[in-house]
Amino acid sequence: MKKQTSNKHQNFNLVSSEIDSFDFANTIIETNTDAIIITDIDGVITFWNKGATSLYGYTSEEVKGKNISIIYTKENLEVLGSIIKKVIEGEEIKNSEVNVIDKNGNGLNILLSINGIRDKDGKVKGLFGITKDITKQKQQEADLIAAIEIAEISKMHLDNLINKIGDPVFVKDEESRLVRVNDAFCLLFGLDRDKIIGKTLAEDVSPEEIESFLNIDKQVFKTGKESVIEESLTIRGRQKMIISTRKTLYIDANNKKYLIGVIRDITDRVNIENELKKAQTIARLGSWYLDVFTNEITWSDELYKMYSIDPALPIPPYTEHVKYFTPESWEVLSSSIENSINRGESYNIELQANENAENLNWEWISAQGEAVFDAENRVIAVRGTAQDISEQKRTRLKLERALNELTELKQQIEAENIYLKEELKLEGSFQEIKGSSKPLKRILKQVEQVAESDTTVLVLGETGTGKELIAKALHSKSQRKIFPLIKVNCSALPTELIESELFGHEKGAFTGAINRKVGRFELADKGTIFLDEIGDLPIDLQTRLLRVLQESEFERLGGEKTIKVDVRVVAATNRNLEELMMEGKFRQDLYYRLNVFPITSPPLRDRKEDIPSLVNHFINKYNNKVKNSIKSVSKNTINRLMSYNWPGNIRELEHVIERAMVLNYGEQLQLGKWFVGGTAELNLTDEFISLEQLERDYITKVLEQTNGKIRGKNGAAEILGLKPTTLESRIKKLNISKNR
After folding, report:
1. Between 392 and 429, the higher pLDDT residue
2. SS3 helix, strand, coil % of the chain, rounded to 5?
3. CATH number of the domain at 137-270, please?
4. Which CATH architecture best describes the domain 423-602?
5. What own/partner pairs with CB < 8 Å and gap ≥ 24 does 436-442 have?
6. Closest Cα partner for 302 from 642, 18, 598?
7. Domain 2-133 fold
8. Would you list the domain boundaries of the chain?
9. Minimal CA–CA distance to 572: which of 476, 463, 723, 651?
10. Which of these, 454, 456, 451, lies nearest to 477 by C-alpha position?
11. Where are any strands of DSSP class E within 409-497?
12. Distance CA 452, CA 457 (A)
């Protein structure tokens, strides 16, 4: 990252999910001799390479799922916690000396480097650590210094001693000339010991690199402070490498100063970090950090690319970023950052670029941010990420347009076939019958028993109990299901037209019969006819119906030709046919002909345990119709529905749910005060108000109930089923005070 006041770039934490995109990086990680460990932010181990097994003695299977604290002493747990906290806050740990223990309890000295692993939203979800065992190195350094301090030590003895050290070691005088190097040093750089002793390597290293080395040497000689630095090194004729060098000042008994250096080749580790940086570039993910006290802002390299800004130039102040966004997006972003600073809230939003902004490399970004707290839980900064989602947004918009076109086409086709849908309702089956109560299961069992036969069925039950669904289920379970199911509502047709509807008519049969018409029985040939409200059929037509049931034949009105049909008859009524027979309003022979296999549809009050299933069914049915998005039903609503006796049965329940959805706010279905004591009277005032005023009043009421709380559990946003940012935008637009 780059701060506004500095040109120095820092390595930035990258998205962990991109690691797998680079096969050779995986190979480096697994086979690296250094210990590489990955944990989540709580320290639970998720990856443990062979180098870690070699160093600590635990196999990968032994440690996965356990906490990293197993390799730390009690005394060092506090140090571990401090390191993890720094990484989560965005800091990168490099070459920190830490004491750990192996599986056998032996103490180890390690150099620890940790990067945070971020998810696609930019949040640290894990820790990527590389550890180097320097136990032997530290002991050898101590032995070396002790040996040098022995005045009579021979040069040969000293050379033998430093050659036993595995890492490259060198000793320099105050002029930065090499006075000692071990075999490992010569092997790493491909140099001849006899040719470099007494020299500064100026002939073998580039001028820029040798100047950096010599400057660090001078600092150590001057200050006496140990130096650990990572630097590049290119020995003449060899490939460039990255090394970590520890330089320590030694003063002998004659007050002569020497510089003792120990080198580690970290090229592989740096390659891994570079591959992770590539992952960030591929993901088009930039990161930033805003100090709330100084307003100093820090950007990652990727953000400079997204905004086409030269990293050498100052970052524009936060308040000037308004020019990059549309007014709506800037309002959302600025209020989100303000809420992070003032309330410690996090956010996840999508923002659109201002089309007039110059040199932007994005059209849409997904922005996430969160507050950074100090030890006293005060907000000291806001950090976040910005990911270019322009391509995804364009694809999403194309899909939405295509879906809208498909929806319009579907609606057009449905409109063109509306008559067929009304007359030939073949989609009915058990799938439309919702519930699992004992009364319902008993009915479904009866349907199963009689469906495959041609037996006439009489469905009895109160209005709104679903008698038509039972008829449809009988048809769909029968062998006639490939042929039409024709419905006739005997109470809905005018008396003078019932005969024509049932049996058809010939041209000129009566005034207005300008064409021949095929009747419902003829349409139902080889299928099923459903005679709803059969109790309302006029007495004079009952004779003709009886003939069809007995002989399977009839003549069209005004015709002489006898028409043979093969029809299965299902009739339904909410009336007591036996009482109608006693009153002479229903033929006894017709009743016995229809009542071969009676099925009684239970009222809803006898199957209240089915109400939750029915409610969910009607919610799914009407969500699109009422332009709403109900996702859940409150327990209180279910209890109120269960406590009502439902004289109108399922039909009444359906209408109540539809009405509740029309009046509902948010994603959870609530019943208003209009549903009281089983009545559904809408209380209208003499004056109607606008929809905007209705929305303002309702939001105000919810805010009063939550004492102005918008976010979190039981906040206004949760009650209304809205995102907090959306609700805040509506509050601002409607000029509502949040402190009511």
Report:
1. 392
2. 45, 20, 35
3. 3.30.450.20
4. 3-Layer(aba) Sandwich (3.40)
5. 436/609, 436/610, 436/613, 437/607, 437/608, 437/609, 437/610, 439/602, 439/606, 439/607, 440/602, 440/607, 440/610
6. 18
7. Beta-Lactamase (3.30.450)
8. 2-133, 137-270, 285-393, 423-602, 610-733
9. 463
10. 451
11. 457-460, 485-489
12. 12
Q: Is the confidence at residue 426, as pLDDT, over 50?
A: no
pLDDT tens digits, 302-336: 888 888 888 888 888 777 888 889 999 999 998 99
Instruction: Give the pLDDT score at 222.
Output: 92
Amino acid code (one letter) for 211: E
pLDDT digits 0-9 by tens, 543-601: 888 998 899 899 888 888 888 999 999 999 999 999 999 999 999 999 999 999 999 99
User: So what's the pLDDT on residue 278?
Assistant: 65
Q: Which residue has the tokens 């105000």?
A: 700
The CATH number for 285-393, chosen from 3.30.450.20, 3.40.109.10, 3.30.565.10, 1.20.1270.360, is: 3.30.450.20
Residues 108, 87 contacting (CB under 8 angstroms): no
Q: What number does CATH give the domain 610-733?
A: 1.10.8.60
Q: Tokens in use for 419?
A: 């008559």
The model's pTM is 0.38
Kindly tell me the burial class for residue 253, based on how many C-beta atoms sit within 10 Å of its own C-beta (0-12, 13-18, 19 or more). Answer: exposed
**426 within 8 A of 473, measured Cβ to Cβ:** no
| Residue 401 confidence (pLDDT) | 82
